[in-house]
Specification:
Blueprint: E1 20-28, H1 31-42, H2 49-64, E2 75-80, H3 82-89, H4 98-102, H5 107-113, E3 132-138, H6 141-154, E4 159-168, E5 190-191, E6 214-215, E7 250-259, H7 261-275, H8 279-287, H9 305-309, H10 333-337, H11 346-350, E8 356-357, E9 360-362, E10 378-385, H12 392-400, E11 435-438, E12 452-455, E13 460-470, H13 473-477
Parallel strand pairs: 5-6
Antiparallel strand pairs: 1-3, 1-4, 2-3, 7-10, 7-13, 8-10, 9-10, 11-12
The structure holds delta-meso nitroheme (N7H).
The site of delta-meso nitroheme has 27 residues, from strand 7, helix 10, strand 10 and helix 12.
C-alpha cells in the first residue's frame, strides 16, 4: 500500500524544513466562516509530505555538490484538538483515540504523566479554549511572522489567537543542538516505503541508515498497516479507522518544555566532582550520547566527534552488547525513550512505541552571568504517532517516569535486581518528587562501583501542552470544511 504523500501533511513524515517555526494556537469563533476561508485560501497552501520530501532531496543533492540551497522554505501545517473537531463536525462527531479525546490538560492525563498542574502552565495558553494550531515553518523569524500575520488577517473574523510563539534553531556553532548543548535530530525511525536503505552499504535490509530500523507507516499515519507485535519485520493488522476521513491523518503531541540550563550545568559539575569524573562524561551518561552526538554505546569513556558526524556509524548500535549498563546507563534518556532491543519483547515490542520527533528550540541563549534561569528557553517538543496512548504517553509514563524500567536487570557480580531509576532529562516523579538514577559512574569495561545520582530538581519543566489531530488534505477539503 503506497503512502499517499500528496494527501499527508508535510511535518509528520520528513519534518518541514525549519530554521524558525511559528506556533499559532487559536480558538474558532465562527465555524462556517472559518471553513469557508480555510477552503478558499489556506488548504491549498499547506505543505504536503510530497512537497517536503522532494524539497529535502533537492537540498541534499545541491549541498552534496557544494552549492547553497535556494529553496523556498515556507511550510504551513494545520491540526485540531478534540474541541476543534467538535466545532467543525458537531457534537455527534466520531470518537477518536482515547488519549486525544481526554486531552493533554485533563486531570487523568496530568496524573498519568506526572505533569505539573495546568494551573502552573503559561497563563495565556490557558486563557481560552484551544481548537487548533497552525505550524508555520521557514527560513527565518521575519518570514514566519510575516506569513503568520497573513494567516491571522485572512481568518481574523473567524478565529481568535489564544497563544503564539516562535521557536528557532540555535545560532552559530549551536545549530542543531538543543539548549543543554547536545546534538539533536540524530535518531528517527525509518518509514517502510519511504526511507530508502542506504546505498552506501552497511545497513541491514530492514534499516535505512545503519541502526535506523524501518517501521511500518501505520505506526505514524492512520490507514496503513503498523507493526506486528511479535515480529519486528512484519506488518501488523490494519487498525480500524475512527472515521473514513481519518485516513492519512496523524496525532500530534505538543509540549512546551522549559530547560533550566544554568541549573543543569551547575548540578552536573557538582555531581561529577562528587563522583570523581569529568562533567562531560556525567552529562553524557544522563543522555546516552555525548554533546557531539556520539553514542555512549560506541564511545563509552571519551567523546568521538568524527563518529558523531558520521551518519553511517552514529546510530548503529543496540543494547544487547551492554547488558550491565557499563557503557550506557539503563536510565539514560535515549536508552529509556527508545530501548531498542532491551525490553523482554525485544525490537518487536519497542517498535510499537516509536514516535517521529519534529520539535524546535525556543528562547534566548544563556546570558553572561545568568547562573539561575532568568529567561524562558527550551524545546517546543512535537511528535507524531498513530496512537498518543501507545506511543508518546507510553514512553513518558512507562519508560521515562518509571524507575523500574528496563525491568529484569541484575548486577553482574551478585545478581541483585537493579532499579534503573528515572530518565534524568524528561522523567517526572509524582508530585514533583525527587528522582534518582542508577550508575552515573561508568563501570566500563569491568568495574563494580555502585553509585546513584539523586536529582532533587527537574531540569525540564512542562509549561504548556496539547494534543492535536493533523488531518489529510482530502479531509480538510471535504468533511472538515463542509
Ligand atoms: Fe529526547 N536531550 O538533549 O537530552 N533527546 N529530549 N525526548 N528523545 C534525544 O537521537 C532531549 C523528549 C526521544 O532513538 C537526544 O536525535 C531534551 C521527549 C527519543 O536512540 C537528545 C528534551 C521525548 C529519542 C535528546 C527531550 C523524547 C530522543 C539524542 C526536552 C518523548 C531518540 C539525539 C527538553 C517522550 C532515541 C537524537 C533513540 C533523543 C534530548 C524531550 C524522546 C540529545 C533536552 C518529551 C525517542
Amino acid at each position: 500500500m503506497p503512502l499517499e504523500m500528496h494527501d499527508i501533511q508535510g511535518d509528520l513524515l520528513t519534518g518541514m524544513q525549519k530554521n524558525a517555526e511559528l506556533f499559532l494556537f487559536f480558538r474558532i469563533t465562527d465555524a462556517p466562516r472559518f471553513k469557508d476561508i480555510a477552503k478558499r485560501h489556506l488548504i491549498g497552501r499547506l505543505a504536503t509530505a510530497q512537497t517536503v520530501h522532494e524539497r529535502e532531496r533537492r537540498v541534499a543533492r545541491r549541498t552534496a555538490y557544494g552549492g547553497a540551497s535556494q529553496e523556498e522554505w515556507i511550510g504551513v501545517n494545520l491540526g485540531f484538538t478534540k474541541d476543534g473537531l467538535t466545532q467543525l463536525l458537531g457534537r455527534n462527531r466520531p470518537r477518536m483515540e482515547s488519549a486525544f479525546e481526554r486531552g493533554a490538560d485533563a486531570a487523568q492525563t496530568v496524573a498519568a504523566l506526572n505533569d505539573p498542574d495546568p494551573a502552573a502552565w503559561i497563563a495565556k495558553f490557558r486563557s481560552n479554549r484551544i481548537d487548533g494550531v497552525f505550524l508555520i515553518a521557514g527560513r527565518d523569524e521575519p518570514s514566519v511572522s510575516f506569513l503568520g500575520n497573513t494567516v491571522r488577517a485572512q481568518l481574523s473574523e473567524s478565529i481568535k489567537v489564544v497563544y503564539s510563539e516562535i521557536g528557532a534553531v540555535r545560532p552559530g556553532q549551536n545549530r542543531g543542538r538543543e539548549h543543554f548543548g547536545f546534538m539533536d535530530g540524530i535518531s528517527q525511525p525509518g518509514i517502510r516505503g519511504l526511507t530508502r536503505p542506504s546505498r552506501r552499504g552497511g545497513a541491514a535490509p530492514d534499516q535505512g541508515l545503519p541502526g535506523q530500523d524501518l517501521v511500518w507507516p501505520g505506526e505514524f499515519v492512520l490507514g496503513y498497516p503498523g507493526q506486528d507485535p511479535q515480529d519486528p519485520e512484519k506488518p501488523g493488522p490494519l487498525a480500524p479507522l475512527p472515521a473514513p476521513w481519518a485516513r492519512n491523518g496523524s496525532y500530534m503531541v505538543f509540549r512546551r518544555l522549559e530547560q533550566r540550563v544554568p541549573e543543569f550545568r551547575s548540578f552536573v559539575a557538582a555531581q561529577a566532582a562528587r563522583l570523581g569524573i569529568y562533567s562531560e562524561l556525567l552529562a553524557a551518561r544522563m543522555v546516552g550520547r555525548w554533546r557531539s552526538g556520539a553514542p555512549l554505546e560506541l564511545a563509552a569513556l571519551r567523546d568521538n566527534p568524527s563518529l558523531a558526524a558520521d551518519d553511517m556509524r552514529n546510530n548503529d548500535f543496540d543494547y544487547a552488547d551492554d547488558p550491565f549498563q557499563r557503557a550506557c546507563p539503563y536510565a539514560a534518556h535515549i536508552r529509556k525513550a527508545n530501548p531498542r532491543d532491551d525490553p523482554s519483547g525485544g525490537k518487536a515490542e519497542t517498535l510499537r512505541h516509536r514516535i517521529i520527533r519534529a520539535g524546535i528550540a525556543f528562547g534566548p541563549e544563556v546570558m553572561p552571568g545568568e547562573i539561575r534561569t532568568m529567561h524562558s528557553r527550551g524545546l517546543m517538543f512535537v511528535c507524531y504517532q498513530a496512537s498518543i496512548e501507545r506511543q508518546f504517553e507510553f514512553i513518558q509514563s512507562r519508560y521515562s517516569n518509571n524507575p523500574q524500567f528496563v525491568n529484569g536487570k541484575r548486577r553482574p557480580n551478585d545478581g541483585i535486581a537493579v532499579v534503573p531509576g528515572f530518565d534524568p532529562i524528561i522523567g517526572q516523579a509524582a508530585g514533583n518528587g525527587a528522582r534518582e538514577m542508577d550508575e552515573p559512574f561508568p563501570n566500563y569495561p569491568m568495574g563494580n562501583r555502585r553509585t546513584r545520582l539523586e536529582m532533587p530538581q527537574q531540569f525540564v519543566v512542562l509549561t504548556a501542552a496539547a494534543y492535536f489531530f493533523v488531518p489529510s488534505i482530502t479531509a480538510l477539503r471535504t468533511v472538515l470544511t463542509r
